Amino acid sequence: MAADSALTNGADSQRLRWKYLDRILSRPGPFTDPDWEPGEAVIEGLSRAKILVIGAGGLGCEILKNLALSGFKDIHVIDMDTIDVSNLNRQFLFRHADVGKYKADVAARFVEKRVKGVKITPYCGKIQDKDEDYYMQFAMVVCGLDSIEARRWINATLVGLFNEEDPDSLKPLIDGGTEGFKGQARVVFPTMTSCIECQLDMHAPRAAVPLCTLATIPRQPQHCIEWAHIIAWEEERKDITLDTDDPEHITWLFQKALKRAQEFNISGVTYSMTQGVVKNIIPAIASTNAIVAASCCNEAFKLATNSNPFLGIPETDNYMMYTGDESIYTYTFQHIKKPDCPVCGNLAKNLEVDSKSTLQEFIDSLAERPEAQLKKPTIRTEAKSLYYQSPPALEEQTRPNLSKKLSELVSDGEEVAIQDPAFQIAFKFKLVFKK
Amino acid sequence: MTGTTPPILQGPTSKEKKYDRQLRLWAASGQAALEESHILLINSGPGVVGVETLKNLVLPGIGNFTILDSTIVSEEDLGVNFFLEEEQLGGFRAEHTCNLLKELNPDVQGSYITERIESFLLKADALKPYTLILVTAPIAPELLSKLSANAETSAIPTFYIHCTGFYSHFSIHLPPAFPIVDTHPDPETTTDLRLLAPWPELSQYTAEKTSGLMEMNHHDHGHVPYLCLLLYYLEEWKKTHDGQVPQNYKEKTAFRQTVSQGARTDNAEGGEENYDEAVAAVLKSLNPAELKSSVKEVFDASECKLLTADSPDFWIIANAIWSFYVARGALPLPGSVPDMKAQSADYVQLQNVYKSKARADLSEVLQRVRGLEKKLGKTKTAEEKEVELFCKNAAHIKLVRGRPFHVVQPGKGVKWEDRAKAAVQGLTNPESLILIYIAFLAFDIFTSTHAADALGGAAKIPGETDAEADAEKVTGIAFKIIDDLIKEAGTVVEDPDYSEAKSKAAEFVQEIVRAGGAELHNIAALTGGLVSQEVIKVITKQYVPVDNTCIFDGVRSKTSVLRF
Ligand SMILES: [Zn+2]
User: Fold this and answer.
1) I need a labelling partner for B117 at 20 to 30 A (CA). Which of A409, B253, B430, B518 fits?
2) pTM (2 decimals)?
3) How do residues B392-412 score in pLDDT, each as one tens digit?
4) Catalytic pick from A61, A143, A212, A224?
């Protein structure tokens, strides 16, 4: 029964190390498929699976450790960031002496040193630097990111990679995210199950404070900070690029905000709040990272070995939502794929618009709409170009459209294609006029 | 920067920088509590879940931890435990896991004990230095009983954790009265504006701001705080409804319509944001204030009613707030106002109306607290800050009644007592994971009755060698637990529910026995995350901890919290 004796490759003592893992992979369970054959082949398959980890931050550190101790031997990791001192309360592969070094490098070396026999290949750069061939080599991708843009990019890339004729082109995407005591883990089978874009409205962006509130009637300390950030800096330090990691810059904003708050008798502006607002800081703790990362890796492990059913099998649960501030609560459910998903669906998505609003207002609203979240859109209809962000000549040519009303540019229910430099694909929307 | 104001040079301290992302959750007070704690981990089995828990506590900066573990590092440890290295084979697991954990945070003190737990527990006061104890399975029942008894008598919170294969569970034994003031309720759902019972200053403010409402220019009309709009239209409504505010859903909808009709549409924007806010707030802001049952539970507690000179401050303040509630018909006002469309000065003035009332309520409560303290002859009085926090959160305070977790005893069944009826209901509820818990209890009974080799060594773990035979035995034990439970509840479960519950239990047992006591790193890491989160809540007395058992199913990725 025990796998140790069955395995002949490698030293016996080396394999003894994986006694616990091998035991589970060498025995059928009540929930495994009746055709599943436990044992050597499963263990071999696991050690050969090439897996990509995106992000080497709070979730990424956990994910790398977990995968290495789950029997994966060929792990790749991408992260463009360097280590900051505020990472040290949870990103446990980094020490004070590592501050300033690349996260992917330090994390990979650390786990390789600790878990013998695992190979971790780091890439310190952007996911956008890599082409389809690169992503094609992996069996699956695990994401531990804090940026929604990066998630949408890899999601669209993996959906685009899938080719019906080639089953190997199906790359499951396992994605984790956290905020304070809350988080989620989800599994996407590109084109087969609901994708990150289908689920975009689960993560609506925070509504921005209207500019006129900031400029004329601030009421909250945050309004004063946003004023310093958006208006005062532009007016007084236009020539200096704001670096939110530069303490001098934050101090300047803090003092500006404080002064404005005093003028309006508003209390509560602090340095920490200034930093939080300007850098859009999301609270993060080791425990939630541990939970969400381990949940992702548990799914990756089950997927790679078939040692138990996993999330994301079509027509079953694919999403686990976690809340830990009031007792512990999870909601595990099937998020349904949207036929009008701009990435994995084939129908244009309805977008309700006010026919009286201008193209400029519509473009501004795209950044905030939970179902779009596009910041630099280029828009065209089947027949004409409405607005181009670039090249400059086209931008100039289409600029007069910005002040026109939508009703002058499109008809009710007309389809438009929207492109954004952050994505390789065009989003299809049907503009439906508000009654 | 002008020359007259001195520059504020101090940014955050290095500690504030390092802990920035967590201080935004539990603040300096929570951090101070963590730093004063000393956690004991009594580790056994593969021992990963305990070490992963500590990792998540060392990182945010607990003061001190101690690992008690007499195990020697073996090959199989290296394939599952991240805090051990090859060179440490043959050394003490307690020593090496402790050292590698300490590397994570130089501010944390760590130590280890390699003595066997049997002799360790014989010493008087062995458990005294610790503020919280974590115990991982497998552990002999007589030892777990000792730890449970200690939790009872010393009021040291104690966690019992079991992690095997794709499943885990943990139970928390908290002190019999574990009150939480700072529960961090969702600010969206907790705004308390008292629109149905405005006090004179609020009414006067409203009268000022809505005076000549109809004749106002567009700018002023569009900047009347929505709160004043609601109060204004409520007065109008009362005039035609026998002095009554809207009573039911139908009336509230009609009232909402009235407010909505007050908005101007002939302005440049074609509508008014403050009116939109007022309309949106009607349904949630016009409900009479009722005490949550969890708050009532605090006021009804005997500790609150029968104060003594030894009563903790929490109960004295609770009693004072109760008497305030009885006298005033409402809890002290929290005093915060949500952001709303308004002129800056008007908004600040409105904030002050609420803050002044909150301060007045606080000072009245404080007076009552001091009165009680004097009457009881207390020498040490409650801090004003504490009373203030209590007043702010009065509507959301919570009392957890800690109770012992199950300790199975060889030859004795599992007792469910007052929880038997609820537990039986769980047997047939597909969302409940109680059957996994019962499988774990059966696992514990198996190890306690298949004790040890002749040398008194480690207990025999089901599935270590012969999974099939052991699964059969453990299933038999699980079935007996189910039958005894149904009997204890004095009820019957009809077929097909009964057979279904049993066949499910048999599957869960098989899955557990399949692992033969092995921990999967992912499940241990996830459970370590859950446990550490609960430890943080218990130590900081913030947020609401699990009461009292949490079960995780890694096959279906679900959790369930049950009270036993
Ligand atoms: Zn989609």
Assistant:
1) B518
2) 0.92
3) 999 999 999 999 999 998 888
4) A212
